[in-house]
Amino acid sequence: MKTGLVIYSSSIHRLAEFYCHVFGFEVSEKDESYALLIAGSFELVLLETEVSKKASSTGKAREDTPIKPSFFIDTPLELVGEKIKEKGGALYQPKSWNFGGRQVCDGCDCEGNIFQLRVGKNA
């Protein structure tokens, strides 16, 4: 099964740049209202609507959002944390734990959307 995620954004360009830089997504197609990013068999769709453009994007983590996407990576947290910070996001270090044989840590992107990193054993 192929999987994907849709995120409403106040700035498609900025958010696409974040996910491409941090997680290696590639822009498959885009226009002024959306961007389709692909990494492996995962599709990330960024949508910019009149409502999402008006939403304040303070960069503060949206702790009350009931969903948290997970990204499985093979890069040490220190290195991916630098990439996240370079593009305006944050990594919640040293608050990490082990789950399912992987090191786990939460972070947020440049618009405050929270995600979880699951670091492989080969990192």
TrEMBL record:
<feature type="domain" description="Glyoxalase/fosfomycin resistance/dioxygenase">
    <location>
        <begin position="6"/>
        <end position="55"/>
    </location>
</feature>
<dbReference type="InterPro" id="IPR004360">
    <property type="entry name" value="Glyas_Fos-R_dOase_dom"/>
</dbReference>
<dbReference type="Pfam" id="PF00903">
    <property type="entry name" value="Glyoxalase"/>
</dbReference>
<dbReference type="InterPro" id="IPR029068">
    <property type="entry name" value="Glyas_Bleomycin-R_OHBP_Dase"/>
</dbReference>
<protein>
    <recommendedName>
        <fullName>Glyoxalase/fosfomycin resistance/dioxygenase domain-containing protein</fullName>
    </recommendedName>
</protein>
